[in-house]
Amino acid sequence: MTNKTQSEQKEGYRNQIRVCLNAISGAMSRAIQIKKNMRAELDEVRKKDDILFEQTNPGVFYDKTEFRIKNPGFYREQEEKIKAKAADLLKDPYRLTVEAIDELEEAVIARRSIVSIDDPKFTAAIAIVQAAGPGIDFDTAASINAQFEGDQNSLATLKSIYVSQKCPYDGGIDKMIYDLNAVMNTIRINSLVLQAFRPEGFINRLAQHIAKIAQGEGFEFDPSPDDNDLIAEFSKRSGIPEESLRGL
User: Is the separation of the CB atoms in 152 and 177 below 8 Å?
Assistant: First the structure.
């Protein structure tokens, strides 16, 4: 990209970011379907397990969860097989996501290292802020900022100019700027990718952080692609089995 203008280079990295986000979204969709299939198989096994128990213990009331823990039997054996199969199928989307997130980080860093000195819109924006100085109002600043939504380098540069010009209003520019290192550290320290692609892991926890990066770079990304994550969270809080909630 060395023979291209700054703006062309930034656009090239923006396209790379788009490709990475699409790859992550696609891998998540695959994982969600794998987990959906796994839960459907588990539900069927539970039904068979209930029938077996009722046939051998007619008229006996029992706590199914407690019984299954104390008496592994048919259900436990089948559950382990189903989850092992899902874990194996999840390896590929997990690998693709790890690679895409690394490439996403590289593209974001490369893009924000480029200053668009060849962009007349950007140089005009700087000139307006410098000419208005402390007299610039909130709406004018916000209008200028909006032209560079998703361009972290330009936004950071504008912010520094607002500060140097001692502008009391900056159009709320801080809300448009995000800390990439903080987001990536959260993902890695908490092993969110590994957790997301486990059979019983939560994909939405990872998706929420990818969505922060996407929004900061001017893209949309669904922060809650897996409806079952919401069901699982509610199940833990309410004590209602997930299979019962999915049937509502």
Answer: yes
Site of tokens 């402390």: 134
Could you tell me which of 74, 81, 71, 66 has the C-alpha nearest to residue 49?
Answer: 74
CB 177 within 8 A of CB 216: yes
Please tell me the predicted confidence (pLDDT) of residue 46: 79
Q: What is the DSSP string of 10-35?
A: HHHHHHHHHHHHHHHHHHHHHHHHHH
Could you tell me the two tokens for 61? 């009331």
For residue 24, the tally of other CB atoms under 10 A from its CB is: 26
171 φ/ψ sector (left φ>0, alpha ψ -120 to 50, else beta): left
- How open is the CA angle 198-104-179, to the nearest 5 degrees? 95
Cα–Cα distance for residue pair 227/248, rounded to 1 Å: 13
| Of 76, 105, 99, 103, nearest in space to 197 by CA | 99
Tell me what percent of the chain is helix, strand and coil, each rounded to the nearest 5. Answer: 75, 0, 25
- Predicted pLDDT of residue 45: 83
Q: Could you tell me the two tokens for 1?
A: 């990209």
Residue that has been written with the tokens 């007349």 in this structure? 120
Q: What's this model's pTM, rounded to 2 decimal places?
A: 0.83
Give the number of other Cβ atoms within 10 Å of residue 209's Cβ. 20
Domain range list for the chain: 6-112+227-246, 120-176
pLDDT tens track for 95-126? 999 999 999 999 999 999 998 888 999 999 99
Residues of the chain with confidence (pLDDT) below 70: 1-2, 49-74, 229-248
